[in-house]
Amino acid sequence: MKRTAIIACLLSTGVLASCTSLIDDQPAPTHTSGQEGADVVDASSGADASTDAFHFASGDLEIGPFDPEETLPVLFDPCKEISADEFAAIGFTTDGVTIPAHGGQVLGCGLESDSVAPFPDSIVVAGLLASSKEVERQARMQEGMSSTVLKNAVVVENRPFDGTACGSYVETHRGTLWVEVSNGRSGTDLFSLCNQSLEILENLYKI
């Protein structure tokens, strides 16, 4: 997957682009993830296996309400905080390079896989400095799609609303964790794209 395709996805996607408007009156995030010399954030909050959280080697990413207007967190950075081994365990590889957008309010990570067929144009896992309500206002809910594995997961069709992009997401204490699958050329139907994005999010939860 070319990085230019991933960057185009991050910059052109309506939901991701909307994040900027959420914190115009707040100071910029102080983290430097995705920049040279950046340190990996310790995501651990002391949660154990019974906590409703994503359990990564770098620490636990707890699921729960998020309000960027009340709290400016250290945004979750998938490329830095999900290891290559963990991505490999769910069938993906990544170059490990964070793709920041909108002043660090979006931290994206492009994935590749030989096992996903037909292969989408791009798969992006991202941390968004946006609440679930804000995402819902910018996208189209996919009624009837839900997860028995991750009860708080939401599935939406994303802009440009032409059946080529679908995202699944869940709020965490460090922003919204977002998985988008898009397919502008090979014609995979929207339902399949949505299933792929939800499956990736569920698999990250099951690590």
Number of helices: 6
Largest sheet: 7 strands, antiparallel
Q: Taking strands numbered 1, 2, ... along the chain, how are they ordered across the largest sheet?
A: 3-4-5-9-8-7-6
In terms of DSSP E residues, the strand content is 15-25%
Distance between the termini: 24 Å
- Strand count: 9
Number of domains: 1
Helix content: 10-25%
Mean pLDDT: 76
Overall morphology: globular
Order of helices and strands: HHEEHHEEEHEEEEH
Gyration radius (Cα, Å) is 15 Å
Low-confidence stretches: 1-8, 17-49
Structure description:
The protein is built from 6 helices and 9 strands, in the order H-H-E-E-H-H-E-E-E-H-E-E-E-E-H. Strand 1 and strand 2 form a beta hairpin. The chain has one domain. A 7-stranded antiparallel sheet has the order 3-4-5-9-8-7-6. It has 207 residues and is of the alpha+beta class. It starts with a helix and ends with a helix.
Q: Which secondary structure elements does this structure contain, and how are they paired or packed?
A:
Blueprint: H1 3-12, H2 14-17, E1 53-56, E2 59-62, H3 78-81, H4 84-89, E3 99-101, E4 106-111, E5 122-128, H5 132-138, E6 140-141, E7 154-157, E8 165-172, E9 175-182, H6 190-206
Antiparallel strand pairs: 1-2, 3-4, 4-5, 5-9, 6-7, 7-8, 8-9
